[in-house]
Amino acid sequence: MPSQNQRIKSYIALEAARLMIEHGIQSYYHAKTKAAAMLKVYDHRNLPTNLEIAQATQSYLGIFKIETQAKILQEKYQAALKVMGFFSAFNPRLTGDILQGIVSEYSDIYIHVFADSENDIALLLTEARILFKLESKIFSFTTGENKSFSAFQITIENLIIRLVVFPISGVRLSPLSPVDKKPMKRAKYKEVERLFKSYL
């Protein structure tokens, strides 16, 4: 039988999952601290891990969103393919929860691209008259380092795409996932195309 602390963590994980799916909260930390406050749990030692929230999210989607999930995934994979095709010269890779099918209508699409300079990406977007917002993303690596990378936010067919720019050599070293702390899975165009076709 689960302990009381484990039951509390499970409740918080499920509520955090609901907040991420229904209200579009992107940050695991924000979702679980807000869920804990809503459930009047103030001891943060009972907060679930990001992996536990991801698992709760998958369960929530399978129970409450099963009828719409395939369509959402299809739309997001299709948008990702368009962007990856446009940036084909920069060896694009799709990454994030979308590869495990853990997405909601609010989930952003993350694509890693590899270039000598962020200016190469900015120039291509500017020439194509695609509006963008320049941000930065911090990633951790197995080396123990934390590094900041430029990220371009664009909108395609009302879907938010975040293009993170790594050096060309970065294709060989994937940053750690915020979910399980393992190197992020990255999918090439052909693999994303296969995923897209599986939902047709």
Describe this structure in words.
Strand 3 and strand 4 form a beta hairpin. The termini are far apart. It contains six helices and six strands. It has a six-stranded mixed sheet with strand order 3-4-5-2-1-6. With 200 residues, it is an alpha+beta fold. The protein is 43% helix and 19% strand. The radius of gyration is 18 Å and the shape is globular. Helix 1 packs across helix 2.
Helix content: 40-55%
Give the biggest beta sheet: 6 strands, mixed
Distance between the termini: 42 Å
Low-confidence stretches: none
The count of DSSP E runs of length 2 or more, i.e. the number of strands, is 6
Beta-strand share of residues: 15-25%
Shape by Cα distribution: globular
Tell me the layout of helices and strands:
Layout: H1 4-23, H2 28-38, H3 50-64, H4 66-86, E1 93-95, E2 109-114, H5 118-127, E3 133-140, E4 146-156, E5 159-166, E6 186-187, H6 189-197
Parallel strand pairs: 2-5
Antiparallel strand pairs: 1-2, 1-6, 3-4, 4-5
